[in-house]
Amino acid sequence: MLPGEKRRIPKWLDDINDPLAAIRTALFLAGAHSEDDKVRNYLNLAEEQAFSIVRIVRHLVHGGE
């Protein structure tokens, strides 16, 4: 990591996590309001994959050094 990049990590995390949180919330709400089981399953899958991205980012920042 280049000098100066490490202190920018919190900003990068916010830049990634804020949109992901909005996406996950939208997926959850869409699933909660859907009566179609197939649609809910697809939305749950998408929410799980979005959370996978959150875990990967956390690992890269906190555990990847």
Can you walk through the features of this model?
This protein is an all-alpha fold and 65 residues long. It has one domain. Helix content is 78%, strand content 0%. The protein has two helices and no strands. It has helices at 9-32, 37-63. Helix 1 packs antiparallel against helix 2. The longest helix has 27 residues, at 37-63. It is elongated, with a radius of gyration of 15 Å. The N and C termini lie close together (10 Å).
Q: Features of this protein?
A:
single chain; 65 residues; mainly alpha; 2 helices; 78% helix
In short, what is this structure?
By secondary structure, this protein is mostly helical.
Write the layout of secondary structure elements.
Blueprint (H helix, E strand, L loop, with lengths): L8 H24 L4 H27 L2
Q: What is the SS-derived class?
A: mainly alpha
Gyration radius over CA: 15 Å
Let me know the average pLDDT. Answer: 85
Report the biggest beta sheet as strand number plus sense, adding barrel if it closes.
none
Q: Helix and strand string, N-terminal first? A: HH
The coarse silhouette is: elongated
As a percent range, the share of helical residues equals over 70%
First-residue to last-residue Cα separation: 10 Å
Number of strands: 0
Query: How many distinct folded domains?
Result: 1
Beta-strand content: under 5%
Low-confidence stretches: none
Count up the helices.
Answer: 2
